[in-house]
Amino acid sequence: MPTADELIVQTLEEAGVEYVIGIPGGGTGQIYNLLYGKEDRIKTILVRHEQVAAIMADAYGRATGRPAAIMGQGLFMASNATFGIMEAMLSSSPMVVITDTSDGGVGFHAANQSGAGEYGSMDITTILKTMSKYTTLATNPKEAVIGTQLAIKHATSGRPGPACVVMRSAAISGEVDLESPPFIHNAAGYLNTAKPQSAPQDIQRAIDILSQSQRPVLVAGNGVHMSKSHQQLQELAELWNMPVATSYKGKSAIAETHPLSVGMVGVYGQEAANRSVGEADTVVVVGAKLTPQDTVRERPSIFDPLRQKIIQIDIDDRNAGWTFPLELGLIGDAGSILSQLVEASQPAAANSAAGRKAWADALPQRKQDNSFYDDPEMHRDSSPVTPQRLVALLNENLSADTVFALDAGNNRTWMAHLYQARQANTFFSPGGTAGMGWGLPAAVGLKLVYKDRPVVCVTGDGGYMMTVNALSTAVQYDLPIICVVFNDGALGMVRQHQPEGRRIASEFVTTDNGAVARGFGAFGIQIGDSRDLPDAIRQAQASGLPAVIDVLIDRGPSPDDWRADARRAGET
Ligand SMILES: Cc1ncc(C[n+]2csc(CCOP(=O)(O)OP(=O)(O)O)c2C)c(N)n1
Ligand SMILES: [Mg+2]
Fold it and tell me: Would 163 disulfide with which of 66, 134, 436, 571, CB 3.0-4.6 Å?
């Protein structure tokens, strides 16, 4: 009879799981041992910290739509890895978590009886349940195999997300009786679900609403990235000549250089986007949850269901109509529904074009009036470097197909606000948790997918140091990403909100992050003058190594100068 660990590896192969990322421990060590010699089908990546494994898998899942498995010992998956699992849950990213209870046969002991990683009777199942689509506890070998199959299924079905199988120690190595029910079937058969579409009469209702509208706008979110429907989104926008705003996670759903792009809506968005949405009479939301950050805490001058007809397309029927009441919710895969809308748009779009002409004609002026992706500081060289200038230089010196992983803090607000994406599907961000330390491991995970394109992490010095160990993984697996550190020697976003003379717990000792990188065997350089950045990028790219460009940043400029919900002097 085969053992559960053998069948778990077989399941991963059948389901086409390409990567197992993690740190062996407890019962998972046996499964790792069985992966030996299988590199042509399943590649194993050893990380330095489980958080990095989970973030890499999150980014890989977003880029491919397929889950990577993260695997390691229960206590540490339910603690160290949770940062990435949580973000994957909030960002609808497929991921499979394979772990154990390390109970050593005494799982009935209470948590306070545990010690030294054995008898790990912490309630790992409950911890993971709070942040996953599906978590099952396998108490016997057959459950371990079927649980793994179902975790893969649930990670990718409907709105994707993390799905976990937690196994009792004895379940992993035990024999599986294949002759009695429940039977073990080929795992691939659980994944053959066609993408959900909308009914034709509901598509027609949406077309009717658009036809009557004079000022329609699209708001595209993460769902466009997840369904890889960038082309359909652009086609729909062009057919109706309607502006396209994006949420933060939807950044680069359409190239921000496209004439119909108005940039990102929300707290850190473009004024052109906030005004375009605010003046719209119909808002078509595609795969965006409409978080408080997207809506500037439901500011009625931007989103207002009393003035606007809102159509919301979402894979999750709970999301459609959660934030605002809707004129129409369309439930299904964003790509499928956008294709349906594109197909049903003619002749209605052409026939009603006259009614939308004034709106479309006004768009270029609106962008110009609201300094679209422009700021005077973007054009001024200095030492230390202003964040605005750094963003401008990155845009000038990196190719249009560069893939970005953002982090948290001021650095990401500058990037999200001022970097004008020249190509669709180029921005990835931790928009679920806004957690520091996501960017670098995410870039490493993205490099597994985008092998022939530049992959660049942009992070703060605070976030960089949280997961800096991912550089070691990048060196080990030859994943030459570039990490640009906005080094202001501080938790910049925190510091800027503290009064002068009363700064507390927001400033660091100085660190040369380039030197830190060299210690890992990566390329590393620190620069303090904006004029040195182009050459630093050239050197980083020429090194062929994972690279860190540590940029000393001017602490002066504040995103509050343009932040949509910032409290300004004189305001009460
Ligand atoms: C893991 C984590 N801890 C705390 C926070 C709260 N927080 C948001 S921004 C920020 C400061 C970020 O500092 P840094 O990474 O240096 O970026 P900067 O703002 O300086 O550009 C903090 C502490 C967070 N988002 N994530
Ligand atoms: Mg900082």
Answer: 134
